[in-house]
Amino acid sequence: MKNKGVLLVVSGPSGVGKGTVCQQLLKAHPEVFFSVSATTRKMREIDQEGVTYYFKTKEEFEQMVADDALLEWATFCDNSYGTPKAPVLERLNEGTSVLLEIDVQGALQVKKNYPDAVLVFILPPSLSTLEERLRNRGTETEETIQVRMKQYRREFEQATAYQYLVINDDLSKAVCDLEAVLRAEQMRTERCQQIIEEVFE
Ligand code: ADP
Ligand code: 5GP
Question: What's the predicted TM-score (pTM) here?
Answer without folding.
Answer: 0.92
